[in-house]
Amino acid sequence: MSEQRRIGLREVRALELGQIVWDGTVPGFAARRQASAAIAYILKYRTIEGRQRWHTIGRHGAPWTPTTARAHAQELLGEVAKGRDPAAERRARRVATTVAELCDMYLVDALAGRVLKRSGTAKSASTLELDRGRIERHIKPLLGMHPVAAVTRHDVERFLHDVAEGKTKARIKTKARGLAQVRGGKTAANRSVGLLGAIFTYAVRQAMRADNPAHGVQRFADAMRERRLSDNEYAALGVALSKGADADIWPAALAAIRLLSVTGWRRSEALGLRWSEVDLVRRTATLGSTKSGRSVRPLSCLACDVLRSMDKHRSGGSELVFPATRGDGIMTGFRKFWLRIAKLGGLPSDITPHVLRHSFASLAGDLGYSEPTIAALIGHAGRSVTARYMHAADAVLLAAADAVADKTAELMCERRRPGPPCSGDIK
């Protein structure tokens, strides 16, 4: 028996076994009593490909009433019109019973921009690549075969200590001639548990389990990165960069290191920089995708000199400012070039490209610049809300960028080479 009217509590309570009543206001929305006392709200719809689906919204009772179920049915129809298939997604969630399958679902939705950070923005491509690495190298090997619903806090705590103790240590082939050294350690353990918590938050939102087993897991204390270059190490880096050309080190790698030293940028930001993001006239770089999202950076005169030096070598139609030795992709061999420079300068092994970033910020602090100014110079996530509307660096930031870069060059025993006037110079 089937009837059609606006569904209310009276119609729901009057349903007999096997009876279904269709709503007269929302197409495809209905209430149905099966061979029991339970009543379910359902939605029948067709996908954009024309397939007919039946989707169960939920059983009658908190939170589902005729009003709330009808409103949810309207929302689902809107999503169906955009290409979603709620019934198929629910079946997929039921099939994804292991943590490995859950991780794959998470990455698919994250890549599509459907997994948001606390800021309400999607994760950047570089962050998702790091997530993928932690999933493949730590989470799947240790927890991949566990049923999603069966993972406990104890399992997550054991996972934390296993990664910290090097249980996932391995050498993994990454490309035709590339190897990744997976070492584990406390930092890797902390970040992997943080990602695991985000994945289980996703599972909760997808109704795959009711709680997050990573909540409340005590992680290791973060080791604060206090390392910065000393005056002697700055001088040694300057000498090494000067020797680099004679040592036949890839010019783009040398230029990228020099840019990192006078800007405080992240390595990925420099290596991924494209000419379309650079405005030498306004002395501004507009990075479309960074760890902190879209970022507008002031360019010091020294930074502009580095970029102009690469413009002179621009060839092959590469859009990247610092191209790889072969192909059109990002320079994957940068770490090897950095190690050669560090060896030429006799620099300690704990000095990495990230230390250049910390050193730049520390120099800016030594010169008396405020935290918001330093954040704007290096693109830190803590910058002010108004910064997201900035399209070009202002005079104050340009002056600050010049001051810190000039101090860096002084410590490296370098000076700005004679050349064209620096566009945007403060008069």
- Percent range for β-strand residues: 5-15%
CATH architecture grouping of the largest domain: Orthogonal Bundle
SSE series: EHEEEEHHHHHEEHHHHEEEHHHHH
Which parts are unreliable, with pLDDT below 50 for 5 consecutive residues or more? 383-390
Describe this structure in words.
With 427 residues, the chain is of the alpha+beta class. The chain folds into three domains: 2-84, Double Stranded RNA Binding Domain; 96-205, Orthogonal Bundle (DNA polymerase, domain 1); 231-411, Intergrase catalytic core (hpI Integrase, Chain A, Orthogonal Bundle), CATH 1.10.443.10. 44% of the residues lie in helices and 11% in strands. Strands 1-2-3-4-5 form a five-stranded mixed β-sheet. Strand 2 (20-22) and strand 3 (29-33) form a beta hairpin. Helix 5 (125-143) packs across helix 7. It is elongated.
Q: In a nutshell, what does this entry contain?
A:
By secondary structure, the chain is α+β, with helices and mostly antiparallel strands. The chain is built from 15 helices and ten strands. A five-stranded mixed sheet has the order 1-2-3-4-5. A three-stranded antiparallel sheet has the order 8-9-10. A two-stranded antiparallel sheet has the order 6-7.
Notable features of this structure?
427 residues, alpha+beta, Double Stranded RNA Binding Domain, DNA polymerase, domain 1, hpI Integrase, Chain A, five-stranded mixed β-sheet, three-stranded antiparallel β-sheet, 15 helices, 44% helix, elongated
